[in-house]
Amino acid sequence: MLSPYGLDIIESCLTCKMRVDRIFCDLPTADLQAFETIKYATAYPKGAVLFVEGQAPRGLFVLCKGRVKLSICASDGKTLILKIADPGEVLGLSATVSGKPYELTAETIDPCQVNFVKREDFLRFLKEHGDACFKVAEQLSDKYNTACHEVRSLGLSHSAGEKLAKLLLEWTSKNGEASKQEPRLKLALTHEEIAQMIGTSRETVTRLFADLKKRQIVQAKGSTLLIRNKAALRTIASNG
Amino acid sequence: MLSPYGLDIIESCLTCKMRVDRIFCDLPTADLQAFETIKYATAYPKGAVLFVEGQAPRGLFVLCKGRVKLSICASDGKTLILKIADPGEVLGLSATVSGKPYELTAETIDPCQVNFVKREDFLRFLKEHGDACFKVAEQLSDKYNTACHEVRSLGLSHSAGEKLAKLLLEWTSKNGEASKQEPRLKLALTHEEIAQMIGTSRETVTRLFADLKKRQIVQAKGSTLLIRNKAALRTIASNG
DNA sequence: ACCGGCTTGTGAGGGAGGTCACATTCAGCT
DNA sequence: AGCTGAATGTGACCTCCCTCACAAGCCGGT
């Protein structure tokens, strides 16, 4: 560990390239090579801000390694975390395409490997490569879909408990698809951050977790969380 | 008025075509003509359902005349109205592109003129016409943007009053851009529907309006609403 | 004119959760 | 170890608004 980055860069750029392939997959090799020429491989430390909500779009970011927190922020400082982006995710795509300001703020929560593409370069790339353009439309549809789910969760839930249950279920289905018996998931976020994800207060999250533990629905094992009663969690998530 | 439609159809298809031009504008004439061949001009009465949330995507709908209510619905019947689409809007685009189920339910609230395009036809059209594909990406970015604003409004507001003020401001900025003195807007929705737009109860909306009237911020003139004090409304919208 | 249905207006009660204030525990640092 | 700051746990209070209940207004139909 001579530097925060160092050897890591060399290793991850290989895996990174594979990830890019996965996003713009099915593209002819020519298109892929064109993409390779316009991207800038960069590295960010933990806590770096890729872009800020309201900023004019400079370009897009393909996350190769590490996680990025995507959030919106009210004038009074209250923050809503929309999602934690994992490697493979494309960030700032919508703003880059439309030219409107970034809708979100993107901040690294790990040391990150990122491929940056300038807006002009990307737009030119899209004009010249129709297939890639379709992939972009698909990506945007995906993002829209996620946003709709967010709206549903925020707008149609009756209680904070319901939203927390939904969040936990979402995490379990994303993480341990394999382990069917007792899903476990790493609690990488603080109660404060979870509160910001479901639009509630930190104290409420603490109380909700205490309640879930008392009712034997979840169980804490250090920083991992065991889901003991997934059915009950589902009931909470749908009933309110 | 021999029939609910009748002459209207012939008139509006001309204007309608202009609208389609506006959406896929800048396209070469060849592309436009190709689009004309795959669209089906159709008419719906008030209260018709274009598509339902969760349905497999049959295709997209270009709204030419009339308004369409876009909503999501919880298992308990609680409804959240996301927007009232005006002529020119493309509906079901994201689902058509991604192949995932429609995220929303679309229901006409006027008699409507609509151009329908089948999913397969549209996808083929996109493959063959790269420029149109880019336009689609732009449209999707727009929709994503709107969804983000919805999330912001739902997730970061402290009170129902704040959300109502935001909604009213949004409406005034969309409707009477010209009249700078005292913006007026047609209240085409019931309190119940407004409540569904901001995720609150009907009674709360009634009470909020009563309060705004008492404080001389708005004034009712039949079914039109005068905004007497836009500054105050803005304060409510941002302070909570 | 009368009726029934929808919309709006208003009161009373109660519950969820935000806020404040503090105690406690945990994790990293030297 | 011990110290420090962050994260968690918990109680008390109070506000917003949801719910229920009902009155009043508005409007089209016959």
Key features?
homodimer; 240 residues; alpha+beta; 22% strand; disordered N terminus; DNA-binding
Q: Would you summarize the structure shown here?
A:
The radius of gyration of chain A is 20 Å and the shape is elongated.
Could you outline the blueprint of secondary structure elements for this entry?
2 copies of one chain form a homodimer.
Chain A: H1 7-23, H2 29-38, E1 39-44, E2 49-51, E3 59-65, E4 68-73, E5 79-85, E6 90-91, H3 93-98, E7 105-108, E8 112-118, H4 119-128, H5 130-156, H6 160-174, E9 184-186, H7 191-198, H8 202-214, E10 218-221, E11 224-227, H9 230-239
Chain A binds a DNA duplex (30 and 30 nucleotides) through residues 158-161, 190-192, 200-204, 206-207, 209-210.
Q: What is the assembly state of the chains in this entry?
A: homodimer
Query: Biggest chain pair contact, residues each?
Result: A-B, 42 and 42 residues
Order of helices and strands of chain A: HHEEEEEEHEEHHHEHHEEH
Mean pLDDT of chain A, nearest integer?
87
Strand fraction band of chain A?
Answer: 15-25%
Rounded Rg of chain A:
20 Å
Strand arrangement within the widest β-sheet of chain A reads: 1-8-3-6
DSSP summary: helix tally of chain A: 9
The helix/strand class of chain A is: alpha+beta
Q: Total number of β-strand segments of chain A?
A: 11
**Which regions of chain A are unreliable across 5 or more consecutive residues at pLDDT < 50?**
1-15
- Major sheet characteristics of chain A: 4 strands, antiparallel
- Terminal CA distance of chain A: 48 Å
